[in-house]
């Protein structure tokens, strides 16, 4: 088995601030993902990385940057936090060509004041 | 674009009741379909998938059958337990590697003891 660790668990920021969320996995998976989860909107894909050194935009990439530092880690940066923004950011991983079976971390809850 | 519709936002039942959560999809091709479950405080977990018409997916007592004509993949469980209280997400992908999942908004299931 393996585990996905997301840090921090809670993140409080100010409007306009640049904020970074981190994700580590020990599944030895090639592919990693960042999703945003909003109440009433489900999960929306922000960025994914098929292998180390790869980066692909999802449907919600505007306002975010991502970085795949090494196989086991994938970071997400909110480039300019929006006031009253509140969401959970979920990191996931899968084997390459995993046919949709993804393993999720517990999430980082973002609040922007 | 491709989309998944879950008509029930919340379902409340008693233990041993029969559960049905409706999922319909709209896709430009022939998608693979998924169910994920998210327990409080955790990330979503893969439940099962189905890749072709009339294929049944199942896990942990839950099942769903791919119906291409009706564009549906309804989740059912014959006798729910309090531990089944969670949010259930239907999802699809047209990507053969399964990298780009499109999720529904989720259905919260509350099972009363």
Plain-language structure description:
The complex is a heterodimer of chains A (113) and B (113). In chain A, a hairpin with an 8-residue loop joins β9 (86-94) and β10. Chain A is built from no helices and eleven strands. With 113 residues, chain A is mostly beta strands. With 113 residues, chain B is mostly beta strands. Chain B has strands at residues 3-6, 10-14, 19-21, 23-26, 32-38, 45-50, 56-59, 62-65, 75-77, 86-93, 102-103, 107-112. In chain B, strands 2, 5, 6, 10, 11 and 12 form a six-stranded mixed β-sheet that branches. In chain B, β10 and β11 form a beta hairpin. Classes of the chains: A mainly beta (113), B mainly beta (113).
Beta strand count of chain B: 12
Q: Write down the overall mean pLDDT of chain A.
A: 94
Strand content of chain A: over 45%
| Main sheet properties of chain A | 7 strands, mixed
Strand content of chain B: over 45%
Number of strands of chain A: 11
Order of helices and strands of chain B: EEEEEEEEEEEE
Radius of gyration of chain B: 13 Å
Q: H/E order of the elements of chain A?
A: EEEEEEEEEEE
The count of helical stretches of chain A stands at 0
Question: How is the secondary structure organized here?
Answer:
The complex is a heterodimer of chains A (113) and B (113).
Chain A: E1 4-7, E2 10-13, E3 19-25, E4 31-38, E5 42-49, E6 56-57, E7 64-70, E8 73-78, E9 86-94, E10 103-104, E11 108-112
Parallel strand pairs in A: 2-11
Antiparallel strand pairs in A: 1-3, 3-8, 4-5, 4-9, 5-6, 7-8, 9-10, 9-11
Chain B: E1 3-6, E2 10-14, E3 19-21, E4 23-26, E5 32-38, E6 45-50, E7 56-59, E8 62-65, E9 75-77, E10 86-93, E11 102-103, E12 107-112
Parallel strand pairs in B: 2-12
Antiparallel strand pairs in B: 1-4, 3-9, 5-6, 5-10, 7-8, 8-9, 10-11, 10-12
């Amino acid at each position: 088995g393996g585990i996905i660790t997301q840090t921090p668990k809670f993140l409080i920021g100010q409007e306009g601030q640049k904020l970074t969320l981190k994700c580590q996995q020990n599944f030895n998976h090639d592919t990693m993902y960042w999703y945003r989860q909003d109440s009433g909107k489900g999960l929306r894909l922000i960025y994914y990385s098929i292998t180390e050194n790869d980066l692909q935009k999802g449907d919600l990439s505007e306002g975010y940057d991502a970085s795949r530092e090494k196989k086991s880690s994938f970071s997400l940066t909110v480039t300019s936090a929006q006031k009253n923004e509140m969401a959970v950011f979920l990191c996931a991983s899968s084997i390459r060509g995993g046919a949709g079976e993804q393993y999720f971390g517990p999430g980082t809850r973002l609040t922007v004041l | 674009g491709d989309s998944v519709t879950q008509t029930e936002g919340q379902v409340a039942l008693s233990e041993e009741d029969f559960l049905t959560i409706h999922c319909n999809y709209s896709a430009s091709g022939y998608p693979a379909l998924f169910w994920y479950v998210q327990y409080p405080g955790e990330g979503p977990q893969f439940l099962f998938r189905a890749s072709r018409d009339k294929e049944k997916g199942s896990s942990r007592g839950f099942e769903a059958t791919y119906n291409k004509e009706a564009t549906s993949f309804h989740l059912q469980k014959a006798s729910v337990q309090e531990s089944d209280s969670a949010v259930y997400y239907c999802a699809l992908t047209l990507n053969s590697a399964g990298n780009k999942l499109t999720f529904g908004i989720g259905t919260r299931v509350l099972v009363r003891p």
